């Protein structure tokens, strides 16, 4: 059941969202917020996991069990990730698809979802399935899909969107 749900979320949500959001064609209700601004997307990527499987013919690496991926101050944690790469003399990451309790953090910002996709070429992170963003000041944002554009620092949530805005504290 969970595997089918994740597969459906990836197929029906992430692929469509990546294309439609970048083209500005999304017709669902959408909320835009600033998140993960000024991230160094050119920094090297470090990883740790309980198990690694190199699938050289498919140009991918599967990391499973307590996966922890770091790039500069950005951190992605999940139960499992598939890392797609090109192999032109050295491995160059194209995309990371993470499943199972996905959490992406940077400083005081935390994004969560059932599935997370980090597209390195487009510099976009997409969270699908019970997606949320929480910021240190108390701001929260929840939706079915959540897209973070690391180039601009602009994030958008789709579906039934809910959240909380923090307000300045009244000073006596």
What topology does this entry show?
Blueprint: H1 2-23, E1 30-34, E2 45-48, E3 51-55, E4 60-71, E5 74-87, E6 91-106, E7 109-119, E8 124-134, E9 140-149, E10 154-158, E11 162-164
Antiparallel strand pairs: 1-10, 2-4, 3-4, 4-5, 5-6, 6-7, 7-8, 8-9, 9-10, 9-11
Commentary on this structure:
The N terminus is likely disordered. The N and C termini lie far apart (about 55 Å). This protein has one domain: Lipopolysaccharide (LPS) transport protein A like domain (lipopolysaccharide transport protein A fold, Sandwich), CATH 2.60.450. Strands 1, 2, 3, 4, 5, 6, 7, 8, 9, 10 and 11 form an eleven-stranded antiparallel sheet that branches. It is mainly beta and about 170 residues long.
What labels would you give this structure?
eleven-stranded antiparallel sheet; lipopolysaccharide transport protein A fold; 1 helix; mainly beta; about 170 residues; disordered N terminus
Percent helix range: 10-25%
In CATH, the topology is named: lipopolysaccharide transport protein A fold
Oligomer: single chain
- Tally of strands: 11
Q: Unreliable segments (pLDDT under 50, ≥5 consecutive)?
A: 1-34
- Sheet-strand content, in percent, reads over 45%
Shape: elongated
Structural class: mainly beta
CATH superfamily: Lipopolysaccharide (LPS) transport protein A like domain
What is the C-level CATH assignment? Mainly Beta
Give the terminus-to-terminus CA distance.
54 Å
Averaged pLDDT: 79
- Main β-sheet: number of strands, strand sense, barrel status? 11 strands, antiparallel
Order of helices and strands: HEEEEEEEEEEE
> What value does the Rg take, in angstroms?
16 Å
């Amino acid at each position: 059941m969970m595997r089918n749900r994740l597969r459906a979320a990836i197929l029906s949500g992430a692929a469509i969202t990546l294309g439609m959001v970048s083209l500005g064609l999304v017709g669902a209700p959408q909320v835009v917020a600033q998140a993960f601004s000024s991230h160094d997307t050119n920094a090297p990527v470090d990883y740790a996991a309980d198990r690694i499987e190199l699938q050289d013919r498919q140009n991918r690496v599967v990391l499973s069990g307590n996966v922890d991926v770091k790039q500069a101050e950005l951190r992605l944690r999940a139960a499992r990730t598939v890392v797609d790469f090109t192999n032109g003399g050295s491995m160059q990451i194209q995309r990371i698809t993470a499943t199972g309790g996905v959490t992406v953090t940077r400083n005081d910002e935390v994004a969560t979802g059932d599935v997370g996709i980090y597209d390195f070429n487009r510099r976009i992170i997409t969270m699908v399935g019970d997606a949320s963003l929480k910021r240190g000041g108390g701001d929260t944002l929840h939706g079915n899909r959540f897209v973070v554009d690391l180039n601009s620092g602009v994030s958008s949530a789709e579906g039934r969107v809910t959240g909380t805005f923090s307000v300045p504290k009244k000073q006596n």
